Amino acid sequence: MAPSEQVPPVRLRGYRGRARGTISKIFFPKTSATFPLDLIKTRLQMQGEAALARLGDSARESAPYRGMVRTALGIIQEEGFLKLWQGVTPAIYRHIVYSGGRMVTYEHLREVVFGKSEDKHYPLWKSVIGGMMAGVVGQFLANPTDLVKVQMQMEGKRKLEGKPLRFRGVHHAFAKILSEGGIRGLWAGWVPNIQRAALVNMGDLTTYDTVKHYLVLNTPLEDNIMTHGLSSLCSGLVASILATPADVIKSRIMNQPRDKQGRGLLYKSSTDCLIQAVQGEGFMSLYKGFLPSWLRMTPWSLVFWLTYEKIREMSGVSPF
Questions:
Q1: How far apart are the first and last CA of the chain?
Q2: pTM for the whole structure
Q3: Helix %, strand %, coil % of the chain (to 5)
Q4: pLDDT tens digits, residue range 6-18?
Q5: Closest CA to 289 of 4, 89, 47, 17
């Protein structure tokens, strides 16, 4: 379409279907490129899990706590280079559902439910509420894929410990969880998962939206790639700081062994997991895996927002 033929920028109405297509174009290469950091983050979050002592010595952590680099090298040496991408398929499934759901929900809340003021100002408190609600909706829908991703990421470690593998592949994992726990089993760990998502989106969506509009309204910067880049860098850092403790709790609850009724054998709830982690490992255990999480979140956020804004511009949609 020639520039002179482009349709004028539009607001949210009529955009939701286009937004889902926009999301799907963004994250396939991005998720694959940063996925090893996500795997390393999950492995670090499980290191030194104090609650395992309740299952007996055979279930204790067999490897010493290793930093991000040593953990990555250990996975390559002990399991193989390609194992750094174990669980990438459900991760892509997750982002299709999660990113599409959260973006559509946030924009609907911002444009239709809350609304902006006449001078286009969007109050911080509305942005915070909208971001958290968007995260809750997107993550609740994506919980089954996140559950499978976390459990598949730990399969290599189970093999090294001499434990039987749980799944033959992604679809077998979905089928097995469904057969053993029913529909409800696919939403195991959904409470800490949506708590994490609410914090991630409060950090990501809220920070990006707030910083971007602050820069546009109060500095010489215009609504361009420089503004988008600065805003996305801020959002990635804030999201990582806010979400890492909830991410540790979420990963441990999702990966814990369960009885025949689907009840966790280590933790009764996210609060119980939090208390056990702090009492048994110290407060900083809640930030295990922070470095790979931040290193993954920053480029992830940068690529996502730059691409998302560009596709909106090319589609004739008003900037975010």
A1: 22
A2: 0.76
A3: 75, 0, 25
A4: 434 434 444 444 4
A5: 47
